[in-house]
Amino acid sequence: MITFDSLTLKAFIEENKEFLTGARIQRIQQPTRRDFVLAIRGFDKDGKSVIKKLYININPQYHHVCFMSKENESKRLIEIPQKPPMFCMLLRKYLENAKICKVNQPPYERILELYVETFNELAEKIHLCLAVELMGKHSNVVLYNDDTNVIIGCAHNVGAEKSREREMAGTLPYVYPPKQNKIDILNYNGEIDYSRLNSDFYWFSKSFATQAAGMGLDKLRNYVQLKGLSPAISKDYSQYTLFRELLPDSIPQNSVNEMLDNYYAYFIEKDKCRTLKTHLTTVVNQRLKKCRASLTKMQTQLKKEKEADRYRLYGDLILANIYNLKDFSTQAEVFDYENNKNITITLDETKTLKDNANNFYKLYTKSKTSREKLTELSDALHTEINYLEQVLYSINISAGMPDLQEIKSEILPDNEAKTKKTPVNLPLELEVEGFKVWVGRNNRQNDYIVSKLSREEDYWFHIKDCAGSHVLLRCEQPSDRLIFECAKLAKEYSSAKLTSKAGVIYTKRKYLKKPPKANLGYVTYKCEKEIVV
Known about the structure:
13 helices; 6-stranded antiparallel sheet
């Protein structure tokens, strides 16, 4: 991944300077500590009034600035908090409805300066500057008074313990970063050491220096002056360039802004997708661990309760031999007619034989009830474990953020799920031998296939005794080959994908039933057949 450099910022400003100059900042939002969205109203090249969203990211990994498209805004998963942060409130106080009078970049710096005109509480015109510093881990957004050069506020305060040369906080003077000891290539006529291109000259970041290695001095000067600008992104999104000739096998972009928007939106979505996937996997694994631990305890308890029949036998033997035994005895020697042997039963010497027998019957009844409840709870835990394993499988095969958002809404607590209703993405639609086949990639899509898409005469496939996708075939009289192909799909989209062989069950849709209050994607079936793949 390539980091945002000063030459890219220079190209972005040159491209958007006309729109920004004279535009007004209408709305300011701060989704996170490191994200800012400024809705800016200006005029396009045709003179029409338009609103563009200026996205500012000061994350050390993805620091950049661009105008977002709607598609890439959704990729960034921007969620506006109900209570804006204090710095956002400060920016709204000073900058909302303010007019941008000048856009500037200090020489060779990765700083975007938006100079604005606005009015204070006394209706006096004041001049402020919003400085967006895009410098890796030192990235920041600073608002200062251009007349007095005093900082009003910044996204991150920088104290003396973090930086000896440049403290950043309210009421302190705003100063530029220390100058680097480099040369402007436009004023240089000597030999070029390409291994030190980044260290010796301004405008050349490490990535750009690597791309431009071996180019002549005149060519490098043209690059710095942005002559022959042709933005592009490599096909694997590993890097971008302002000059496509430096990346021959790349995807051309219509503008610098489009290049930045597409490039960084791709990585932000990828990172958020990975983070959400890890979070959901952790949540599901924790629930699985609890369920399995509870099931183990119940199974241990069930083994103990299986000895309950012994209490019934003791009661029967005592009553069968009540005339041969004495009350208030410590034990009774009787013949066990079920196992054909003599046994000794320990008695309560404070009770009669009849009371001892009744006590054994009570223990038997209690154990029997306990065993029924434990069996019921164990079955419920088995169902929950199967459901969670299905969710875990869905997380592992999720194709992107939309699938993960569906799973997230599924496993959220009820109160959160009610406030966030995620629309169902359509299942994967395929064509097998001319017939339509649908494959669900998570429980929501599986449920959608069974409840919405399917017809009574359609065929339903699922891997046997494993987590997997529901596969629906729209064909009333499928051939054996078509059934086998759909069974192969059911195995491929399951946790048994890598096994040498597995059983796949299939039946008609009319033989499926969804029990009331069952988990998403859970169905019962009858009249099924099995095929081994």
